[in-house]
């Protein structure tokens, strides 16, 4: 994976709780890893080696923090490598030792952090590699903003949030209404823009949005919309497989 030069904006006021939680988890993971090495050094009397590893862990977390602050996708590569590293440390200690407990706690926090960040608001999934629009994992939608209609594409839909690709330049905090280009499923949803990315000239803006499901019946309608979105993706995948095998 590699980083793409982009301009990123976050609604830090609305996302303050999520951002604060991520920072706390970062400090917690590093603390438990350092504790694991401390108990390991005390048990094996390998203070020099453990001190060196603590320095390397600190440098590694500095890199992770910078990647996370800018929401680079390479953050997931480095976080995954770190999780594998912690797994090896866990299996290298008996389960009753303090080192095992510390490294295991660090791994649990890594899982919580990954789950918290796995959202279209922070890391939207956009299939730029698929140039044929017939097979892209997205859904054409109408976007209504202040009685002005435009076209966009819903490229991701997870955990009550989504990602909309549009050439319209909206602002953070703008409230939009979206509905699919579908004559059978008449559904419309209000969303609020929480994040905004611009990768390069010629590409649309990528908006991380949060669905506003306040009214009664919205939850049931949204679940149906998620099923419809997933079914459309499966239909496109089957079409692509048939055309490639033909």
Kindly describe this structure.
This protein has 246 residues and is of the alpha+beta class. 48% of the residues lie in helices and 21% in strands. The chain is built from five helices and seven strands; from the N terminus they run βααααββββββα. It has a six-stranded antiparallel β-barrel with strand order 2-3-4-7-6-5. Strand 2 (139-145) and strand 3 form a beta hairpin. The radius of gyration is 22 Å and the shape is elongated. The model has no long low-confidence stretch (mean pLDDT 83).
SSE inventory with pairings:
Layout: E1 7-10, H1 16-44, H2 47-69, H3 74-91, H4 98-117, E2 139-145, E3 148-158, E4 161-166, E5 175-180, E6 189-198, E7 205-211, H5 218-245
Antiparallel strand pairs: 1-6, 2-3, 2-5, 3-4, 4-7, 5-6, 6-7
Helix pairs in contact: 1-2, 1-4, 3-4
- For the biggest β-sheet, the strand order reads 2-3-4-7-6-5
Mean pLDDT: 83
> Helix proportion of residues, in percent?
40-55%
Count of DSSP strands: 7
- Radius of gyration (Å): 22 Å
Instruction: Compute the number of helices.
Output: 5
Strand and helix order: EHHHHEEEEEEH
Low-confidence stretches: none
**Strand portion, in percent?**
15-25%
Straight-line N-to-C gap: 31 Å
Using the alpha-carbon principal axes, give the shape: elongated
Biggest beta sheet summary: 6 strands, antiparallel, barrel
Secondary-structure-based class equals alpha+beta
């Amino acid at each position: 994976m590699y980083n793409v030069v982009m301009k990123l904006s976050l609604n830090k006021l609305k996302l303050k709780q999520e951002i604060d939680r991520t920072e706390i988890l970062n400090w917690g993971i590093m603390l438990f890893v350092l504790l694991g090495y401390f108990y390991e050094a005390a048990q094996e009397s390998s203070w020099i080696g453990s001190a060196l590893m603590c320095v390397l862990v600190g440098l590694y977390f500095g890199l992770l923090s910078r990647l996370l602050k800018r929401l680079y996708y390479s953050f997931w590569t480095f976080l995954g490598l770190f999780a594998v590293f912690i797994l090896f440390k866990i299996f290298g200690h008996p389960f009753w030792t303090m080192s095992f407990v510390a490294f295991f706690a660090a791994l649990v926090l890594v899982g919580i952090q990954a789950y918290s960040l796995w959202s279209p608001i922070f890391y939207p999934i956009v299939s730029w590699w698929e140039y044929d629009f017939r097979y892209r994992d997205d859904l054409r939608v109408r976007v209504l903003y202040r009685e002005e209609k435009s076209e966009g594409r819903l490229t991701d839909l997870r955990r009550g949030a989504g990602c909309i690709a549009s050439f319209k330049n909206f602002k953070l905090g703008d409230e939009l209404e979206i509905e699919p280009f579908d004559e059978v499923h008449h559904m419309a949803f209000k969303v609020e823009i929480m994040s905004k990315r611009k990768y390069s000239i010629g590409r649309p803006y990528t908006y991380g949005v949060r669905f506003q499901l306040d009214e009664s019946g919205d939850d049931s309608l949204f679940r149906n919309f998620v099923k419809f979105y997933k079914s459309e993706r499966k239909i496109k995948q089957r079409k692509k497989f048939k055309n490639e095998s033909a």
